[in-house]
Amino acid sequence: MAIAIVAVLFLLTVGTLTAAVVISRRGDTATQERLGQFVGGAGLADDRTEEESSEKSRPQESILTQKLEQVIEERGLGKNISTELARADLKITVAEYWSLIVISMIAVAGLGWLIYGGFLFPLIGLIVGFFIPRIFVKFRQRRRLNRFNGQLGDGITLMANGLRAGYSLLQAMDAVGREMPPPISLEFRRVVREVGLGIDNDRAFNNLLRRVPSDDLDLMVTAINVQQEVGGNLAEILEIIGFVIRERIRIKGEIQVLTAQGQLSGYVISALPVIMGLLLYAMNKEYIGRMVFSCDVRGVDPAICSQPCGWVMMGVMAFGIITGFFAIQKIIDIDV
Predict the structure, then answer these.
(1) Are the C-beta atoms of 223 and 237 separated by less than 8 Å?
(2) Which of 53, 78, 130, 251 could form a cystine bridge with 72, CB 3.0-4.6 A?
(3) How far apart are the first and last CA of the chain?
(4) Neighbour-count burial for 99-126, b at 16+ CB within 10 Å, e otherwise
């Protein structure tokens, strides 16, 4: 009965927090639709792309979300989080991101309590739940950056061809935004819109680099800035840069194929002891508990509790797993 009551309270808490986040995303979309007519630009009025549709249908923040956002920014908790969310292409606010972190912490801690009980595993669940949204954001950032880098070589070549045909730089970037798929099309169109709204080129390119921290993109932006200062044939420069980027992408792909087995081995070898230990403890607590939690196991001499051997073994195991994982990652990380 106690477990059932706690489970119901846990589900109600998570459901309430989730409902609060969902309700805070609702609002009047008419204002967003009117603003989208001006943000979209006159030249893109007939091209209803995926990004423009999402911006027009994006709901307005509620008063609860605005107040929470203001409190987080005043206390310094939202520093750099908006940049991280923009790099991951997540259309949520900083307050909603922290709400998801709280929901994740409660969910993982409750799951640990239901499976293992006690106090230690819910505490570990709180720590793990705190990092789960961050890991997801980093995963989204890495996947989006890889897709952008894979499209950048062709995008630069398209820009060079546009410049040879008589386009200006912004017109060539607009052509990339119209002809190529996301995410490069979304980012280039955003640069064009920012310049159209009065932002200078340097600031627009800096904003692009802030959203997409790519070394290849930095090379392209540097070449454009140098050409604007000293002059030169920008189309030829971009064509050379596009060729170099495509070759780098090809070589990186070959290296990833050759090192895929080592990378997968690192993940499997590192995760297997932890997963097996958790499964064995869930199936037979007394068998695994003798190593560390012997005081809580029936039929065991309490004097064994003073033995630190189990904790030393756990520490050595954690140190070995972490050291081996980073050693494998260092070996297979070949910079091109």
Answers:
(1) yes
(2) 78
(3) 60
(4) bbbbbbbbbbbbbbbeebeeeebbeebb
Q: Which of 43, 84, 267, 331 is nearest to 174 (CA)?
A: 43
Separation between Cα atoms, residue 319 and residue 305, nearest integer Å: 23
Q: Which of 96, 98, 97, 129 is nearest to 111 (CA)?
A: 129
CA distance 321 to 117: 26
User: Containing H/E element for 81?
Assistant: helix 81-87
* 329 residue type, one letter: Q
d(CA 149, CA 101): 30
d(CA 213, CA 221): 12
- Report the alpha-carbon angle 199-61-68, nearest 5: 100
SS3 of 72-96: the string is HHHCCCCCCHHHHHHHCCCCCCHHH
Q: What is the number of alpha carbons within 13 Å of residue 52 lying toward its C-beta?
A: 21
Treating both helix axes as pointing N-terminal to C-terminal, what angle do 2-24 and 63-74 enclose, rounded to 10 degrees?
90
Name residues whose C-beta falls within 8 Å of residue 280's C-beta, 6 or more positions apart in sequence. Answer: 287, 288
CATH topology of domain 146-252: Receptor-associated Protein (1.20.81)
Name the nearest CA neighbour of 96 among 69, 71, 70.
69
Q: How many CA atoms lie within 13 A of 18 on its CB side?
A: 10
φ, ψ at 95 (rounded to 5°): -65, -40
Q: Is 21 helix (H, G, I), strand (E, B) or coil?
A: helix
Give percent above pLDDT 70 in the chain: 71
Helices (H) and strands (E) in the chain, counts: 14, 0
Which class for 192: exposed (0-12), middle (13-18), buried (19 or more C-beta within 10 A)? buried
Calculate Rg over the CA atoms of the chain. Answer: 26
Highest mean pLDDT among 8-12, 101-105, 289-293: 101-105
CA dist 280 and 64 (Å) reads: 44
Reported as a single tens digit per residue, the pLDDT across 79-135 is 578 888 888 888 888 888 888 888 888 888 888 888 777 777 788 888 888 999 999
**In contact, 169 and 234? CB cutoff 8 Å:** yes
